Each structure stands twice: as C-alpha cells, then as structure tokens.
Amino acid sequence: MIEVRNLTKKYGDHYAIEDLNFTIEKGKIYGFLGPNGAGKSTTMNIITGCLAATAGEVTIDGHDIFEEPTEAKKLIGYLPELPPVYLDRTIREYLKFVAEAKGVAKADIKAQIEKAMEYTKITDYQDRLIKNLSKGYRQRVGIAQALIGDPELIILDEPTVGLDPQQIIEIRDLISSLRGEHTVILSSHILSEVQAICEIIMIISRGHMVAVDTPDNLEHLFEGMTTVELLMEGSQAVVEAALKDLENVSSLMAEEEEDGVTKVVLTSETDDERTLCRNIFTIARALDLPILQMKTDKASLEDIFIELTNSETDEDEEEASEVPELISSDPGKEEDTSESGL
Ligand code: ADP
Ligand code: MG
C-alpha cells in the first residue's frame, strides 16, 4: 500500500527524519510511536503529500506522491496534528466543503457525508457550529473529514492528544472500528495506546526508525534483558565513567538526583541478574563508590520504549549511531553505548 524508501527531511543542518524505510500493508492498523520531536508529523506530512522531502521516495499503491500527487492523495484521508479549523461552519457544511475539495462526484456527496457522520457518530450534531463542539467531537469531525471520499488509507496524527480520558476511549474505539475497512496509520507518543489498537508498531526516535514489529514480537525481542535501577554515591560523571566498562549494557542513563547521589537506570542484554549485580558491586567496591540502592527487573516493552527514546527530545544531542538499532534484532550486534545518554 505504501512504500517509503530512504526518506529524509532536513531543516537547515538538522535532520527531522533521516533515511526512513518502511512498508505499509493493506488492511492493518499501524502505530507510529515516538516522543515529541521524533519526526512523526514530518513523516506523515510527507507521505500525505503536504510537505516536500529533502530526499527519498514515497509511493502509494504504486503512485509516487511527488510525481503523481493527485492519484496518490485520492487514496489517503489525513487528520493532521493541527487541522485547519472552520469554526463558523456547521459539521455538515464543513464536510460538504471537504467533499468538494476532494473532488467527490456531486451525486455521491450526500451519501459520503451521511456515511462519514454515521461512522463517527456525529449525525445528531450535523447542524451545530464547529466552534460549539467539545475537543472530542471536533476530533470526530476531523476523522469524518478524513473518511470523506472513502480513501483506502486513513492517517491520523496524534488523534487523542488533548482529550479527556473518556474522549480518548471513544476515539480509540472509533479508530479500532476502522479495522478491516481501511488501512490506518496512527501516530502517538503513548505506548499503551498503540499497543491497544495497533497490529504493527513502528518506533521512531530522533528521525530514525528503531523498531518495527508486532506488539508481541517486540516484547519477545526484549526477553532476556534486565533493567537495573541504581542509587550510587558519586557525581554523575564519576558514576557514568565507572559503569562504562560494564559488559552487555545496551543503554545507560545517569542523573545526579541530589548533591553527590546519582540515579542510574541501565538495561543489560542478559537474564543473569545475579552476575550483573555482582559485576556492578565489584566495580563500585574497586572505586569506593557506595551503592545506596540496587533493584533489578525484567525489561518490559515500556522500559525499552522509555530508554530508546528517553533523551530524544533534546535537540542538541548527537543521534544516529547512538540509538540501538533494533530492526535487525541481531543479538550479536555491537552497540556503542559509551556516551549514549539513553
Ligand atoms: P513529532 O511529530 O514526532 O513530534 P516533528 O516531525 O514535528 O516531530 O519534528 C521532528 C523534528 O523536526 C523536530 O526536531 C522539530 O523541531 C523539527 N521540525 C519540524 N518542523 C520544523 C520546521 N518547520 N522547521 C524547523 N524544524 C522543524
Ligand atoms: Mg507531531
């Protein structure tokens, strides 16, 4: 359905996304997961033909989005992160405007509007002005406009942001109900959300795709990994330097919590918790760094997501090579974690 090859977008010297490659298959719900600034909106704006790329290729059902935008865009319904607002129109007026803009045949417009309103359960409010709707209902209108024209592909950029818990449940149910009739890509910075709705999770981090798999497989990918939470006496720099040579560490995050006490969260590619703890103890003893607390746990998908993406919002951080490459899931792969700050 969608083929994305070597997609790159640069703003000045800054790569919003770099060399993204992925395929979207028909009929599934995809979750595009990553923290703020990871590159989700940039990617979505490009594959929907709303933004030019610096390099790379996007085809929608064989149509190049840059060379045949009209054909490609017909296959897509898009709810952007910041949708244009038409506050002084009623729902019906707005949807009619959208249908005309999308070039829906005149004879089909009424039926299309009815269907989209029915699907998003807004039929009863069709004559209400958009400015008088709650955020949850505005989001339904946003999804309804994406459905107009009956596109195969529905792309929703963070559709639950800013909604209250009840509205979030309703919008998630609505998205789930698209399953089977549409291919859906949904972006989110909330793991539990994509875990609940999506068949495939794509994790994006600082403009790079770091994992693409089913929720189950992602969980299995991290089986046999251990996280350690550690409180040590010593400055952040000293503690980081001390733990640098610990074996099999895939990510390490250290932060000085109070004067002279540093909290460390590290993930290790071992399920041998005892040896891991012993190795940490040996290092601490050799350097005379008292351990105030040490707690181990099996790494969960949540841990991994947090660690993968933890410092990603820091725009000045170096990227690329320091992000563990998880797509290949090659267990023998060496990773440079020396100063990842993850
Ligand atoms: P997300 O949607 O995952 O939060 P974005 O795609 O909005 O991330 O942003 C990715 C990166 O690109 C961020 O570092 C952001 O600051 C940068 N960026 C996005 N849009 C622009 C722009 N118009 N000009 C400059 N930088 C931008
Ligand atoms: Mg965004």
Tell me what the structure shows.
The strands form 3 sheets. Strands 6-7-8-3-9-10 form a 6-stranded mixed beta sheet, sandwiched between helices. A 4-stranded antiparallel beta sheet has the order 2-1-4-5. Helix 3 (91-101) crosses helix 4, helix 4 packs across helix 5 (135-147) and helix 5 (135-147) packs parallel to helix 6. The model is unreliable at 312-342 (pLDDT under 50). The chain is 32% helix and 28% strand. It contains 11 helices and 14 strands. It has helices at residues 40-47, 69-74, 91-101, 106-119, 135-147, 165-176, 191-197, 215-221, 236-243, 273-286, 301-309; strands at residues 2-11, 14-24, 29-33, 55-60, 63-64, 76-79, 153-157, 183-188, 200-205, 208-213, 226-233, 249-258, 261-268, 291-298. With 342 residues, the chain is α/β, with parallel strands linked by helices. Bound molecules: adenosine-5'-diphosphate and magnesium ion. Magnesium ion (MG) binds at residues 40-41, 81, 157-158.
